Task: inverse folding
């Protein structure tokens, strides 16, 4: 009923006008907000710099409801970031300089915010209130968009309902995603998970005044590391993890190459989700390079130190043995369980082996001897029998009925290797793969790389429905909108996407596809439904560029997973087959269409191979047939007869072998220019090559923090923007226990290794070492977390790994200016928290252009301001990295290129890289 139905049309008695119509309550609601909490947050930040540190971790500028509060918040952060006091006077002056003071209500409004604060100590709690209201507002906005999508589709919109559902889910996910954040994990809490992972893989003179570095010569030179110092530890970047410049890299929008990408560009991770490049390194020359060939024919050129996340034959065997399976048949397991239930229902008594054999079955006669030894005898019984006509009496061992039947049932129903839990997650270099390419006993391929997950991309507004396009690409006439098929079911599936099919008079198998219109005036420009839409399928095909040129347009290859699967079903229902062994095949003579189908199949997480065969075609281009083959247990057909054939022939465990690609060859090739990038996801993996193969993306600074926390028992924090917590702890255990890192990663620990590891765990579990592996941290977040650690644990050292991966919240004119701001901010952080800050940095290619390859201070990458801000600059150099025959193999130089408070020199240490550490030369 409308609002006007209940209105009075005549004046009331007494001359009063008509009663006002009731208003809908939803239009009177304001978005969720708490102005008082916002004022208390700003007031607390103006009263206390500690409040600023608490708030900056929780709130972002757009979390405030009132725009004037956002302006004040930005001004406070700008002043605080420069290391200056942020109070009502300085903030008012900054706002006056920017011309915003009048817009916020003048300086009195700042004092109003300060007066509203009960106590500045609770600023963090006020900030959480503001943050929660901001999330609620975003939920309301997302809900509004979802309502608009729903009503728009119901009113005859062109969007498919499944696409609307995808968009709605994405809208809610965007709201919740930003609430996820990482924080510190104390070392003691990280040790057990790391040990669990290792165990799982294995089941398969003068007193120094500063913070010690752990290197005696370096400590004598620097007198330790002192509060307020900024120490730069620099070396050449990308000593591995590099790919050839022409390596194709898939992106959410299409393709690029390793030579073209830059910081901020988006790639795709092994989980199928978009990931952002946080650093792109310089091109490197003269590196040893290899061609890595996979079992599906893919080839990628990488340098010797490039990292791959692989499984080996041993790890795959352990994983297979871990599957829940039983040694005994199901009927035997049921019989043992039934006998156990009967025995437990009666009082316990002494029995011999004859009774379980009689009640459970003859099949258990032999295993009962093993069960009996586990249970142990509970007494003896006398058995009488007749032998050769004479009565005999014999004493036989007896067992508790409850215990014997119970152990028998447990043993028969026990899963094979049920106690084994395997988790394989390690990276190996190209050089290591080349050395262990084949299994030594039978020569089989040893290493495999798991397939990427299906690309997780948003739904696209596609001009032609995906199944219809797939069917047309498979059996359609390339010059028009006709399709040839003998399957009426394909026509019905096309019609379900909003098309009409009409049989041609030229052939009973030829059909014309036309868009279905319910308006009765198809094609008229003045029809509101037809306006803006192609009046025929032929025009739509021409619009996407496939008419007379069959291929899969890029927007379809980067559509949502549901849309891509629907497209694949249309292709396979028309031109796909199922082999006798259950493989799925697609055959075409169009090379461009074959490339598109290959990319489509790979984007869904399948391993696909391509075979070429000469056929009799009308033209040279059509005389080569491309046969694409893949195996899966997923439903990839919609046509009933092909779907049933696939179900009946496919192997139920086919994914165990087709879920990965085997590395079949690693061969040296002439050196080519290579380059590497880092990405911001947690596993540091991104996809490379046309087959979308997952591939992977800093030791001295770790040694400083390790020595300070473990040897001197002084609190140290590591902000790792490159490695995860587990990777850091594994390197730490390798260095302390003196167990090679590759042994820990492979899990092949000897008894002596386990002894070292157990001893090391007890020694380091109480070390005050804190790790934060939040990706893409900015300086403000690091400062806030460091201040909190300083207050709680008397922080003595901070390590940032590494400087070039940090981001600045401010816009700068160039990357050099951004790095300059970051280095200056780290220096201010060192002074603010009164502890040394060690920042890992990079060197440019200057050392590689010199004869001796030794780095110099001028080689610091991207900004000369790093040299100015740093109190100490340590440059790392290894002779044997550049010269494999160097007599100084196993040695490294710490070149003290700058020492603000003392002399410069070179300290030689032992590079025990197999243990992921540097040590004094005197330490063996």
Result:
């Amino acid at each position: 009923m409308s609002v006007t139905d209940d209105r009075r049309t005549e004046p009331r008695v007494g001359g009063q006008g008509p009663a006002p119509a009731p208003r809908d309550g939803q239009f009177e609601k304001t978005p969720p907000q708490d102005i008082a909490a916002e004022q208390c947050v700003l007031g607390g930040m103006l009263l206390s710099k500690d409040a600023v540190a608490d708030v900056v971790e929780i709130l972002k500028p757009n979390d405030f409801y009132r725009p004037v509060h956002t302006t004040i918040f930005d001004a406070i952060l700008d002043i605080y970031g420069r290391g200056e006091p942020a109070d009502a006077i300085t903030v008012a002056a900054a706002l006056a300089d920017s011309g915003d003071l009048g817009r916020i209500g003048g300086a009195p409004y700042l004092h109003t915010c300060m007066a509203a604060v009960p106590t500045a100590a609770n600023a963090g709690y006020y900030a959480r209130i503001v943050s929660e209201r901001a999330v609620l507002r975003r939920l309301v906005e997302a809900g509004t968009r979802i309502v608009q999508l729903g009503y728009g589709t119901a009113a005859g919109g062109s969007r498919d309902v499944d696409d609307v559902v995808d968009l709605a889910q994405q809208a809610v996910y965007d709201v919740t995603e930003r609430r996820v954040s990482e924080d510190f994990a104390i070392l003691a809490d990280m040790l057990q998970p790391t040990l669990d992972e290792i165990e799982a893989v294995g089941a398969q003179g003068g007193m120094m005044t500063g913070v010690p570095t752990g290197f005696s010569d370096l400590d004598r030179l620097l007198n330790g590391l002192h509060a307020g110092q900024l120490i730069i530890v620099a070396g050449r970047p990308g000593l591995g993890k590099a790919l050839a410049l022409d390596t194709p890299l898939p992106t959410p929008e299409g393709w690029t190459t390793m030579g073209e990408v830059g910081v901020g560009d988006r790639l795709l991770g092994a989980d199928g989700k978009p990931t952002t490049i946080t650093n792109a390194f310089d091109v490197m020359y003269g590196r040893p390079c290899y061609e890595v060939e996979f079992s599906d024919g893919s080839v990628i050129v990488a340098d010797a130190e490039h990292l791959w996340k692989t499984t080996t034959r041993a790890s795959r065997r352990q994983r297979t043995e871990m599957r829940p399976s039983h040694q005994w048949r199901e009927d035997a397991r049921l019989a043992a369980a039934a006998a156990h239930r009967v025995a437990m229902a009666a009082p316990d008594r002494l029995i011999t082996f004859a009774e379980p054999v009689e009640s459970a079955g003859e099949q258990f006669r032999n295993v009962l001897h093993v069960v009996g030894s586990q249970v142990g005898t509970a007494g003896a019984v006398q058995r009488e029998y007749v032998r050769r006509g004479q009565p005999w009496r014999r004493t036989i061992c007896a067992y508790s009925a409850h215990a014997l039947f119970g152990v028998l049932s447990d043993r028969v129903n026990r899963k094979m290797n049920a106690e084994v839990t395997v988790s394989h997650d390690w990276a190996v270099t190209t050089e290591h793969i080349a050395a262990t390419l084949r299994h030594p006993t039978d020569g089989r391929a040893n290493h495999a790389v798991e397939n990427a997950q299906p690309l997780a991309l948003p739904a696209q507004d596609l001009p032609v429905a995906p199944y219809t396009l797939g069917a047309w690409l498979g059996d359609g006439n390339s010059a028009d909108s006709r399709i040839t098929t003998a399957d009426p079911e394909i026509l019905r599936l096309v019609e379900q996407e909003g098309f009409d099919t009409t049989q041609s008079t030229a052939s009973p198998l030829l059909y014309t596809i036309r868009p279905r219109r319910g308006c009765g005036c198809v094609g008229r420009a003045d029809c509101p439904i037809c306006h803006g839409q192609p009046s025929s399928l032929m025009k739509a095909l021409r619009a996407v560029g496939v008419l007379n040129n069959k291929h899969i347009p890029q927007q379809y290859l980067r559509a949502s997973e549901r849309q891509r699967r629907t497209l694949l079903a249309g292709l396979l229902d028309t031109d796909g087959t199922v082999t006798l062994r259950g493989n799925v095949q697609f055959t075409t003579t169009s090379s461009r269409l074959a490339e598109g189908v290959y990319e489509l199949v790979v984007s869904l997480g399948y391993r696909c191979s391509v075979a070429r065969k000469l056929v009799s075609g009308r033209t040279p281009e059509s005389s080569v047939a491309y046969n694409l083959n893949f195996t899966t247990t997923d439903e990839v057909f919609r046509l009933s007869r092909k779907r049933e054939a696939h179900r009946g022939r496919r192997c139920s465990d086919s994914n165990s072998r087709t879920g990965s690609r085997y590395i079949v060859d690693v061969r040296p090739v002439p050196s080519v220019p290579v380059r590497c990038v880092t990405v911001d996801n947690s596993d540091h993996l991104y996809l490379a090559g046309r087959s979308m193969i997952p591939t992977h993306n800093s030791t001295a600074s770790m040694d400083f923090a390790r020595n300070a926390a473990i040897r001197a028992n002084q609190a140290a924090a590591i902000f790792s923007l490159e490695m995860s917590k587990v990777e850091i702890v594994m390197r730490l255990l390798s260095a302390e226990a003196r167990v090679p890192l590759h042994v820990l990663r492979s899990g092949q620990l000897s008894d002596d290794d386990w002894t070292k590891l157990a001893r090391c765990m007890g020694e380091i579990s109480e070390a005050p070492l804190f790790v934060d592996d939040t990706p893409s941290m900015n300086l403000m977040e690091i400062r806030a977390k460091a201040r909190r650690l300083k207050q709680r644990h008397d922080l003595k050292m901070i390590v940032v790994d590494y400087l070039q991966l940090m981001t600045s919240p401010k816009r700068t004119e160039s990357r050099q200016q951004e790095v300059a701001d970051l280095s200056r901010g780290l220096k201010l952080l060192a002074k603010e928290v009164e502890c040394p800050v060690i920042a890992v940095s990079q060197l440019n290619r200057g050392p590689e252009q010199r004869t001796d390859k030794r780095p110099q201070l001028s080689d610091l990458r991207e900004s000369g301001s790093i040299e100015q801000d740093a109190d100490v600059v340590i440059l790392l150099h290894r002779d044997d990295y550049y010269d494999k025959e160097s007599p100084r193999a196993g040695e490294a130089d710490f070149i003290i290129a700058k020492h603000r408070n003392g002399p410069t020199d070179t300290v030689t240490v032992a590079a025990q890289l197999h243990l992921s550490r540097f040590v004094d030369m005197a330490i063996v």
Observations:
- Residues 741 and 767 are 21 Å apart (CA to CA).
- The first helix runs from residue 35 to 47.
- DSSP finds 32 helices and 35 strands in the chain.
- The first strand starts at residue 185 and ends at 186.
